[in-house]
Amino acid sequence: MADKQFKKKISDALDNNVLRGALGRFGDAYVISREKAYEGYDFKEISDNIAEVKSYAASHLDEMIDQFEKQATARGAKVYRASTGEEAKQYILELAKKKEVKRVVKSKSMVSEEILLNKTLMSAGMEVQESDLGEWIVQLAGQHPSHMVMPAIHMTKEEVADVFSGHLHKLNQPVIAELVKTAREELRKSFLEADMGISGANMAIAETGTLIMLTNEGNGRLTSTLPPTHVFLVGIEKLVPNFEDATHILQALPRSATGQQITSYVSMVTGPTPAYYPDGTVQDKEFHIVLMDNGRRKMYEDEKFKKTFQCIRCASCLNVCPAFQLVGGHVYGHIYTGGIGTILTNFVNSEKDAQNPQNLCLQCGKCSEVCPGQLDIPQMILELRNRMGEKTGLPFTQKFALDVVSNRRLFHSMLRMASIAQKPFTKGQPVIRHLPMFLSGLTEKKSLPAVAKVPFRDVFKTIKQDIKNRKGKIALYAGCLIDFVYPRIGEGVIKALNEKGYEVVFPDGQSCCGAPATYMGDRGNARKCAIMNIEALEAEKVDYVVSACPTCTHALKESFKELLHDDPALASRAEELSKKAKDFSKLLFDLGGLTPGGDGIPLKVTYHDSCHLKRSMGVYTEPRKILTDTSGVQLIEMKESDRCCGFAGSYSIKFPELSGPILDRKLNNIEESGADVVVVDCPGCLMQISGGLDKRNPGLKAIHTAELLLDKRKNVKKNRVK
Amino acid sequence: MHKDQQDDLYNKFKTKIELVSGECYRVNTALEASELVCNVLIEKGIKDVALLNSPISQKGDFVNTFEKKGIIVYTDNFRQVTPDAQAGITQVNYGIAELGSLVQADADVNQRLCSTLVPIHIALISTDKLIPTLKDTMATIHSLPEIPGFVGFITGPSRTSDIERVLTIGVHGPKQLVVVFVDEEVGGVA
Ligand code: SF4
């Protein structure tokens, strides 16, 4: 759980309009320019190639390091292997002392930030100058970079001008072109005077001992041209087997990082090249390469975090992250920020340092969709969360809530009580928020639904199923929200599946799918839920198991298997369930959809993609097809239809201050679409979005696909259950 | 290489480099290149230039052409002159049509001094050194007897967006990049 200090950092970041403006503008422009940069290129193929070469390098790490060292040494480089940051710093410090270095110029190196190299050199009396403009600004301002690719994205030109004025003792106007000119002049002096250059690299090629760096400003070129001593400080995850393998990363990195086809400069350095020495002679420079581990090997050796070695540090995962876009990098506390940064921090700094930031992940999966290294970042963060939960335990209230949820009888009787207890509180606004559960998400910006008077499990018994041409049997898994808040969705599901010739059964022993426990880091309770439901659903006896909540479907399909992999008997039942479980719109589509029909009354709808449905299951064309097959329905796409609505289970209680603005953006997009109704396939999204619309624009309704079908395909009395 | 294939590559290159604020020309002979570059220098008001001698510049008699027009030409001592010279001229090894990128494959420090420290870089290149794609380029470099000590791709002038994401040209490297393709076979470089 996030602590107070962390919460304070978040609220400071949210109050910083400059930061939010800059991040917002960039985030919007980024998506477009990235897409444009990849036009005509097969992103999938490029990322497959990257995953292949990087994972090969990682799984042959020692071989790669040996080969790199051999090749680089043969070309005249001195290679040093540092297992810790401390060792790396000492090596560089000793070298600098030996060379009597007075001035060091650096071109962008995150690794040196990671180990706070500047501090070491400066306390030995050396001048250290960052030369990447963003890093220099941040250095002068005495801050940390807030973004891997754009270190000073959090500052305005006015702030930059102030920092320059203070440093140069002369007034600088907040005119960007002028500021850049000043930087050019100032930094040029540093380059010319420096006796040592320190660089980072984007790639280290084992086959040839080559280091490759990409820059736009030209500082990388200058660092490898002027100073007679040059040190490359490189993390061991940068190794790539063969020279031509670099092609894939060169294809992806600029496109993914900044939406460029290629950076202005790509520099490849193999061994020392000649440089001018102070006496005017031209000789080979003193050339050192420090290959640093500092926690990386541990990360690779951990089965669940192997793929971090496929990361090319493009930062696109940050750029598309809804939480990062709101708070920026400083909230993450350490040098690496965003989702991937949280994972790196966990290993190169400490688990404790990752504890707060890991909470920021909404599990929306947008990052994985754009990641050229094919990392499943949310999954890794979840793993961290669960490990932390296991180690330190969850706070009492959370733990209590999850214990309740995983006890079916207790949980259900509480829900039933809630439905009675809320009556005196009126306006359908009450009790749910006092329930110690994930569904008690509350923010000022949205109203909450009432707990249904009659839960679906009771409604079910009264439904008459009318099946012609019987084809088989389907078990309905309702999940908490459909069972206790939105029973009408369940009715819609049954109606549609009956039409396809299937009888729907409702196994009574089912209960919460365990997702709240999983996403809060309580694997013990998640496991209990998994067992309970596997036993209740008896997938062996039906043709399919259908769920109209993608989060539940994901649990049935994926999480149960993972949670029970160590228990062979249960694992095989989980496998069976996984195969048969389908989300409603996907199942309906796969069964051939409904025969086109509907009341024909014009209705403009827009569709919101739930994170789990679109990204975990790849389902997004199916529901649209179902909607447009319904006569009267006109589908209008909203902007960013697959952007998270901010519900994310417990997230909306943990971080109402973040969930709120994320929801606002969704609501804006819905409103701009001009639709009468927004259709969703997830009851969680439904609760979040309808709660927001209710407060802001009560004329606009949110509705589940199954309910829409119920409404449009038969003139049922509206809002019967609600 | 067939003429029309070369035209095609050149056109691609030109389109790409112009998209990133580069200037691009093509001439038949080294002598024409010399005239063209001289005019560019005059147009840009350049009084002195660091010229790294190369097959094209020698064949085109660049030094004499420029000096006749009163331009000071430095052909050595680059560590001293490049920080203040108004332009630098070098011949580069390859061009990548797909990206509009120039490729320097050369360990010589002067190649970098004359193309990085100066505010205007004028790059000469033989048209037959155009390579279609990045992938082909990597293969070409890889097939050299050894990977040159320094390989640099240059795509447009130096740029930054580090302040408020506003694109600004000319941070550490050149503010202008002018590329001149020469069709005539001159030999030399790469
Ligand atoms: S995790 Fe993926 S998206 Fe994020 S920086 Fe690494 S490669 Fe880029």
Individual helix count of chain A: 35
Shape of chain A: elongated
CATH topology of chain B: Rossmann fold
Instruction: List the strand order in the largest sheet of chain A.
Output: 1-12-7-4-2-3
Structural class of chain A: alpha/beta
Q: What is the string of helix and strand elements of chain B?
A: HEHEHHEHEEEHEEHEEEE
- Compute the number of strand runs of chain B: 12
User: What fraction of the residues of chain B are assigned to beta strands by DSSP?
Assistant: 25-35%
CATH superfamily of chain B: NagB/RpiA/CoA transferase-like
Percentage of residues in DSSP E strands of chain A: 5-15%
Kindly give the count of domains of chain B: 1
**Quick one: biggest sheet of chain A?**
6 strands, parallel
- List the chains of the largest interface with their residue counts: A-B, 64 and 46 residues
What is the CA-based Rg of chain A, rounded? 28 Å
Could you tell me the mean pLDDT of chain A?
A: 89
Oligomeric nature of the chains? heterodimer
Structural class estimated from helices and strands of chain B:
alpha/beta
Task: Assign the CATH architecture of chain B.
Answer: 3-Layer(aba) Sandwich
CATH superfamily of the largest domain in chain A: NagB/RpiA/CoA transferase-like
